[in-house]
Queue: 3 jobs
Job 1
Amino acid sequence: MKTIIQTLTVLALAFLVSCTSSEKAFKQTAEATAEAQFKATIEEEAAGYLTQNESFRKAYIAFMHKNSEFMAEDVRMSGENNGVTTVYIKSYAPDIRKKLLRVAGNMDSSKTGMFNFANAFQLISKETGMPGEPMKYPFATLNLKKDANGDWTVLK
């Protein structure tokens, strides 16, 4: 009897570890996908507004990337091979980013090296009443499926 209980305990633990491992891989894939989407978004924003020089665009992209964190939450699995999750981002909201980009886009190219994005967010926040610190908001809802190799892929 003791052997049966020990065997069942080991099997239950192995099952829990495999489920936890699979969910971790699921979340990592979702977060990496959302991060890539966000990077494409901020690169597009920078290209549209920050036309002074390439280093200014790169500084904005690096600042935004540094001040962004992604969290896959609300995981809903449909069996072992399908799932949906909402990825949240902790970053500056799109509306305050747009205001910052408008201000930065009007800078003289000779002064862009002195521009401080963090201070600019704080000043815009004081003027508009918008949050000047990174905040958490839903970024993307993603459908994922396991492929033939057992890796999670995002469905388009």
Note: The two ends are 51 Å apart (CA to CA).
Job 2
Amino acid sequence: MQKLKTAVAIEPQRFCLVEVGGVESPAGSNKIKYNTWYYGREVSGDAYPWCVVFARRCCAQSGVSLPVKTASCTALMNAAKMAGMWVTSGYLPGDIVIFDWGGDKIPDHCGIIAQITATGYLCIEGNTAVGNDSNGGEVMERTRAAKTILGAVRFCMRWSCRSLCSGPWTAVSCRGMPLAI
């Protein structure tokens, strides 16, 4: 297994360490340490997709909480909307993006933006692979086109709020979004 190829900064003091190269074992089982962490026991099978679980673990490592405890892209999207943390443009590194492969407005997968590139967004994703975007069983860096993104969960951090968010800004909120640690 390849060790830490890329680190995604959600805030400068705490990095969301992303284990690029990690794979579920056996292949196709959804049996991976992120699911064990999330469910509190070892699990496997089709009922345990883990792209959101992986993103949740990355956030937890940085001391940031998602707006809901879920393994579902749809539930994460809906909770982010309710919490005022949903954005549909101007994506930034650290955003958790929800992908829509078919253009049907139904969430299919998620990842964390690591970098904005000339061709789209370099994302770190769990449970993906070349040839199987949404259930591939690997942690990978993937470049995604903007047209595949349905929206994103955005954390406005105290250290970055003034530079990343347009007002109104206070010590506890930015554009009405609560600030994380």
Note: The longest strand covers residues 109-117.
Job 3
Amino acid sequence: MPTIDQIRAEALRALMPPPRLRLSEWIEREVCLPEGVSSQPGPVRLWPFQREIADAIGDPLIERVTLVKPVRVGFTTLLTSAVASFVANDPAPILCLLPAESDCRVVSRMWWKLASSALRACNVGSGQAARSRDIGTRG
């Protein structure tokens, strides 16, 4: 049976705010793609250029991030993960503008699927060794 001191210590640990991480670090640590959203479900592993975009999105000193990008580079997953980070760590109004209605539908479906699966649903180990999936495409 736990003592009062142990119960108190656990309660205080539960009240501690989450650690401050760069957005790219948070995404790779917390986000897991569920089946049906990605051809490679599992923990997210960002490419170097995606880390730069994520960190710009998460930087409080940057008001607007505008991208000119090709298709199939993992942007939908990146944007969805950024929104999930803001919801989990710093709730605030969010405005995402996409160029076409079809893009909005894709992102909307992905948000629902990501939200319906727990952010930590892929409890497949710990640290970098557990990161076995890439988002985006290669080749």
Note: Residues 74 and 135 are 5 Å apart (CA to CA).
